[in-house]
Amino acid sequence: MSNDRTASTRGSLFVVSAPSGAGKTTLCRRIIDIFPNLRHSVSFTTRSMRPGEREGVDYFFVDPEVFAQMIAAGSFAEWAEVHGNRYGTAIDTLEQWRNCGHDVLLDIDIQGANQLRKSYGQSEAVFIFILPPDLTELRRRLEGRGTDAPEVIERRISNARGEIQASTDYDYIVINDDFEMALTQLKSIIVAEGCRSSRVLPALATGFDINI
Amino acid sequence: MSNDRTASTRGSLFVVSAPSGAGKTTLCRRIIDIFPNLRHSVSFTTRSMRPGEREGVDYFFVDPEVFAQMIAAGSFAEWAEVHGNRYGTAIDTLEQWRNCGHDVLLDIDIQGANQLRKSYGQSEAVFIFILPPDLTELRRRLEGRGTDAPEVIERRISNARGEIQASTDYDYIVINDDFEMALTQLKSIIVAEGCRSSRVLPALATGFDINI
């Protein structure tokens, strides 16, 4: 299965958000491997590079001053501050991929998605929310990680309820109960969005000798 | 891959149209076999039953008088007259399936689709147009059938151009160049539409203890 639009078509944005514990990171990694035309958006961040991370692959690592200048210059499609560090998606990053005909996957939180929704219309950006099947399963997964204290888990679950309420603003919901089923759904959304008539028809005008 | 929405969710309508020679009939047959929850809408018609056809499977065969009464009673979601015979989809047919949680596939022409578009909103009906890759391939397929006189083929190709122009009103376009690719795209559209947040969220409210 491949996304076979021609390079002359501008790419789309696929914005993926999820509460912690929904399995978003693994799903996004797999989906990038499946679609050769899909690129993962690399964010800018002010936090320090961790062992194993690579500049330009995991993040673009910049000084707080540079990040502030980029905000002032209107360089970000979205940005947010989390635990004292700033993270942002540069408009240039998105537009360079899109102009080459690549779709771009953005793995960002609800606040970032809200900012993008104001900048990009329905024909340019698709918003996908990934959910665990219910709160019981979410709790099981968070506890199963063994990394969070009980009060952190309670806060994450409390946050998740608020986030799920916000998911009504998203176009699609993928329930990550069975992983392969969730992957099929995410794949299907990307393939289906590539079939939208607004995206397909302009490329067909010549072959059918019509004006669109 | 299956459509695993619960029966408590009302089903959606998938309306499929195509110019003659696009391969719609074969695609629709295959897709019905793939999704256990998807039902093929059986139309009413005034034309005579052909050998091998079955009442209630291929069509509901009715007298012209009965068909006229059904029109007068507002029983049809859409109907059209083609070569002196009438064909129509009864609202009851659609609603009975939908109320049981089944999605319904309607294999109808552009006029019928236009009528349905007025009755069913975007959250209820999805409009899909199937196309051959270009007019050259369409001509090759129509000539390859060996059933149509040259002037019939010319008329079909001329009609196709007009129909393709009308395809801008459809939500999705599936190009039937490679059959398996087209089938994947049609499958993906059905799976993706099942993930629309407006369809998924109501069923989740209980599991996440939220009001939607």
UniProtKB/TrEMBL annotation, chains A, B:
ATP binds at A18, P19, S20, G21, A22, G23, K24, T25. Residues 11-191 form the Guanylate kinase-like domain. It is found in: Cytoplasm. Keywords: ATP-binding, Cytoplasm, Kinase, Nucleotide-binding, Transferase. Gene3D superfamilies: Guanylate Kinase phosphate binding domain (3.30.63.10), P-loop containing nucleotide triphosphate hydrolases (3.40.50.300). Its main location: cytoplasm. It catalyses: GMP + ATP = GDP + ADP. It is an enzyme of class 2 (transferase). GO terms for molecular function: ATP binding; GMP kinase activity. GO terms for cellular component: cytosol. Its EC number is 2.7.4.8. Belongs to the guanylate kinase family. PANTHER family: GUANYLATE KINASE (PTHR23117:SF13), GUANYLATE KINASE-RELATED (PTHR23117). Essential for recycling GMP and indirectly, cGMP. HAMAP family: Guanylate_kinase. This is Guanylate kinase. It comes from Geoalkalibacter ferrihydriticus DSM 17813. The gene is gmk.
